[in-house]
Amino acid sequence: ALDRLVNEKFAREGFAGLTTIQKKALPVIARKINCLLVAPTGSGKTEAAVMPVFTALAQESKNGIRAIYITPLRALNNDVLRRIVKYAESEGLRVEIRHGDTTVAARKKIVDDPPDVLITTPESLAVVLTSEKILAALKGLRYVIVDEVHELVPSERGSHLSISLERLQAVSKHELTRIGLSATVGNLNEAAKFVAGAGRRHAVLVD
């Protein structure tokens, strides 16, 4: 049923059809399987991840922060950001962005009135996880999307993010569905394990 709803969302958002990576990702994400999506820039892999997630969240009752989108770039491509926010808001979901330049007032709003979807960086996520109020708001977390996985895997930032991902799992009442996005990646299996966490099953989908 979710597959049909997601196809309808793509159509509503002006897509004539699904790209290869979107077709491969939809049934996997719909079944809540951890996955790594590897496809060239411009192939619609951002949409491949967020469309099923936002459509699924729109079917459920609101319950704090239910999805987190992590990107290593603080100056995340504004076009991508605008698209993500638009896709979420058209499903009635609220999005907030938290990074190093976020104002004190905006940070306070995230804590006091948590959004459905939080977009953040690995560093800001680590800071956010020190807030008791945010931890309480993350109990209903269901999805984590990690963008630009290839920039994180073999690095200290990646190691820190792995710890944050495990903390997110520990605080959520749900088994998280983790989705990684990458344009290029050396070792597919290692990157997929990084996203899913050690010992968890995962799928690697390549365009």
What attributes characterize this protein structure?
207 residues, alpha/beta, 10 helices, 7 strands, 15% strand, globular
How would you explain this protein's 3D organization?
Strands 3-4-2-5-6-1-7 form a seven-stranded parallel sheet, with helices on both faces. It is 48% helix and 15% strand. It is α/β, with parallel strands linked by helices and 207 residues long. The mean pLDDT is 93. The chain has helices at 2-12, 20-30, 45-58, 78-89, 104-112, 122-128, 132-137, 149-152, 156-171, 188-196, and strands spanning 34-38, 67-70, 95-98, 117-120, 143-146, 177-182, 202-206. Helix 5 links the parallel strand 3 and strand 4.
Provide a brief overview of the structure.
The chain is 48% helix and 15% strand. The chain contains 10 helices and 7 strands. The mean pLDDT is 93.
